[in-house]
Amino acid sequence: MPSIDPKAFILGCSAIGAGLAMIAGIGPGIGQGYAAGKAAEAVGRQPEAQGDIIRTMILGQAVAETTGIYGLVIAIILLFVRPLLKAF
Amino acid sequence: MKIEIALTLFGKEIFIPETIVNTWIIVILLSIFAIYVNKKIKNAKIDEKPSGLLNVIELLVEGVQSLVESTMGADKLKFAPYIGTLALYLLVANLFGLLGFKPPTSDYNVTFGLALITFVLTQYYGLKSKGLGGYIKGFFEPMPLLFPLNIIGEIANPISLSFRLFGNILSGVIIMGLMYGALGYFSILVTPVFHAYFDVFAGVIQTFIFIMLTMVFVSMAME
């Protein structure tokens, strides 16, 4: 059995790590969907306040998105900056 | 289009990346636009109705002012020029991807710089409106034990603000790049829809969120 090139091994593990980091996308998906559902309810109850509701909803969704963006940034760093390869 | 400049100055090589060149293109374009509008406003007659471009400019200025007034309160209208500048710059920068350039906001240095401005504004106006005692006391609330958490929370604001804009725009750039690479000549048929989503929709929404969060942070620090 041929031995694995250490560089290729690190790159492969980085790719797996990037994929795992993107699991963080589940959280913001649930959170944003919940916020949008509540906003739809609020518009149904009070259609005249639609502008304010949409603004508040988008602001809340942006804050909920932060954790997902952190995961994305980790994935991008693992794939393109490759810090583990430099440590090797 | 890709413009990169490599200078050799005093025996040292200085590399100016694409995003800085694009930023300067945007700054020059916006400056020319501002000078042109300024000339037009000075020549306009006050007792007549505004026409053409001036109508659009008036709409823009009034929109920014009413947004600042409704989010920060009427006493903080002095922030409207900064918010307007930020909105114009971010809007043009995010939509720059449509022209085939790399959007400057897909460079972390740009977004972190903008978030640092917000951070300094927050701290400065917090210090100014609360006084030194009130400002320091704000870190020990609701109880002194939470002091380290408050410090971390304060530092996390610019980081999350800059990562949000950077992540959204960069993910759009990466996905568009993958799509152009995968589809080749057929990309003309598919990519317009994704350009509309990643560049126009995400760009406008992220601009709005960035200026809204800036206003919310500053006005929260002043209360």
Automatic annotation (TrEMBL), chain A:
Site (Reversibly protonated during proton transport): residue numbering on this chain: 65
Keyword Plastid in record: no
Keywords: ATP synthesis, Cell membrane, CF(0), Hydrogen ion transport, Ion transport, Lipid-binding, Membrane, Transmembrane, Transmembrane helix, Transport
Example of a GO MF term: lipid binding
Entry membrane topology: Multi-pass membrane protein
Keyword Repressor attributed: no
Localisation: Cell membrane
Segments crossing the lipid bilayer: 9-30, 67-85
One Pfam assignment: ATP-synt_C
GO CC terms in record: plasma membrane; proton-transporting ATP synthase complex; proton-transporting two-sector ATPase complex, proton-transporting domain
Family annotation (SUPFAM superfamilies): F1F0 ATP synthase subunit C
Span of domain V-ATPase proteolipid subunit C-like: 16-78
InterPro entries attached to this UniProt entry: ATP_synth_csu_bac/chlpt, ATP_synth_F0_csu, ATP_synth_F0_csu_DDCD_BS, ATPase_proteolipid_c-like_dom, F/V-ATP_Csub_sf
PANTHER family given in the database record: ATP SYNTHASE LIPID-BINDING PROTEIN, MITOCHONDRIAL, ATPASE PROTEIN 9
Function: F(1)F(0) ATP synthase produces ATP from ADP in the presence of a proton or sodium gradient. F-type ATPases consist of two structural domains, F(1) containing the extramembraneous catalytic core and F(0) containing the membrane proton channel, linked together by a central stalk and a peripheral stalk. During catalysis, ATP synthesis in the catalytic domain of F(1) is coupled via a rotary mechanism of the central stalk subunits to proton translocation. Key component of the F(0) channel; it plays a direct role in translocation across the membrane. A homomeric c-ring of between 10-14 subunits forms the central stalk rotor element with the F(1) delta and epsilon subunits.
HAMAP family per UniProt: ATP_synth_c_bact
Family designation: Belongs to the ATPase C chain family.
Protein name: ATP synthase subunit c
Source organism per UniProt: Caloranaerobacter azorensis H53214
From TrEMBL, chain B:
CDD domains: ATP-synt_Fo_a_6
GO molecular function annotation: proton-transporting ATP synthase activity, rotational mechanism
Taxonomy, superkingdom: Bacteria
GO BP terms, alphabetized: proton motive force-driven plasma membrane ATP synthesis
Subcellular location: Cell membrane; Membrane
Keywords: ATP synthesis, Cell membrane, CF(0), Hydrogen ion transport, Ion transport, Membrane, Transmembrane, Transmembrane helix, Transport
Membrane topology: Multi-pass membrane protein
A Pfam family assignment: ATP-synt_A
PROSITE patterns to which the protein is assigned, alphabetical: ATPASE_A
Transmembrane regions listed in the UniProt entry: 20-37, 79-102, 108-127, 165-188, 200-222
Keyword match Transmembrane helix: yes
Cellular component aspect of the GO annotation: plasma membrane; proton-transporting ATP synthase complex
Record's function text: Key component of the proton channel; it plays a direct role in the translocation of protons across the membrane.
Family: Belongs to the ATPase A chain family.
Cited NCBIfam families: ATP_synt_6_or_A
Protein's name in the database: ATP synthase subunit a
Gene: atpB
